[in-house]
Amino acid sequence: MATAGLPEPTSPPLDPAGKTVMGASDIARCLRRMAHEILERNKGADDLVVLGIPSRGVELGNRLAAMLEQVEGRGIPAGSLDITMHRDDLRHQPTRAPMRTHIPPPGIDGKVVILVDDVLYSGRTIRAALDALADLGRPRAVRLAVLVDRGHRELPIRADHVGKNLPTSVSEKVQVRLVGHDGIDDVVNIAGGESR
Ligand SMILES: O=P(O)(O)OC[C@H]1O[C@H](OP(=O)(O)OP(=O)(O)O)[C@H](O)[C@@H]1O
Ligand SMILES: O=c1cc[nH]c(=O)[nH]1
């Protein structure tokens, strides 16, 4: 069931100054561990719904759901949650195109929603995701799984499941690339990316 539609592939430009901090096997290992953590915390897969945040969170969410399925031997609903209209910088960047929200058949009421994203930084994307979710139903619980937590939170938000804690400076940028979007799985830390 882990088959939420992926958005159109978009490949960020390669930055030769980037330092590779995770490779494909690291990413796979982190996702596998996170899947086990989620199952342990949830005492199994009952009521789990995995929702990835576009764009790369959707591919990661689908992979995580596939790993949950492998371990549990049953289908795990997976989908995507677009946050565009809930961003707090819409007034500054009004031209962002909305992406796909796909809530799988059981819906989210009473479920344990696992939000999935590639990078956690200021926390503003996740704040928007919680708003977007509230428009769609009332989960029993919402948990957050991110591949990379690079710190520098601006809001009181933390992840429940983290692939890798990556200390960074504000001037750096962490770029997650995934096969479905970029043709390669890795995480690159780019100096002087000025991400804020
Ligand atoms: O914690 P935050 O400060 O909100 O940063 C994290 C978000 O930034 C990136 O998304 P971006 O908005 O760059 O779009 P993308 O997913 O298309 O890369 C990343 O994919 C996270 O969703
Ligand atoms: O470094 C960053 C900051 C926000 N979002 C990213 O994807 N990377």
Describe the fold and architecture.
The chain has helices spanning 24-42, 56-72, 124-134, 179-182, and strands at residues 19-22, 48-52, 78-80, 112-120, 141-149, 161-165, 173-177, 186-190. Strand 2 (48-52), helix 2 and strand 3 form a beta-alpha-beta unit. Helix 1 (24-42) crosses helix 2 (56-72). By secondary structure, it is an alpha/beta fold. Mean pLDDT is 91; it is low at 1-10. It is globular. It has a 5-stranded parallel β-sheet, with helices on both faces. The chain contains 4 helices and 8 strands. It has one domain (25-87, 96-170): Rossmann fold, CATH 3.40.50. It binds 1-O-pyrophosphono-5-O-phosphono-alpha-D-ribofuranose (PRP) and uracil (URA). Uracil (URA) binds at residues 119, 121, 150, 173-174, 195. Pfam families: Pribosyltran (PF00156). Residues 28-163 form the Phosphoribosyltransferase domain. InterPro entries: PRTase-like, PRTase_dom, PyrR, PyrR_bifunctional. A motif (PRPP-binding) lies at residues 113-125. It catalyses: UMP + diphosphate = 5-phospho-alpha-D-ribose 1-diphosphate + uracil.
Strand line-up in the sheet with most strands: 3-2-4-5-6
**Beta-strand share of residues:** 15-25%
Radius of gyration: 16 Å
Number of domain units: 1
Query: Sheet bearing the most strands, described?
Result: 5 strands, parallel
**What is the global morphology?**
globular
Distance between the termini: 37 Å
Helix/strand structural class: alpha/beta
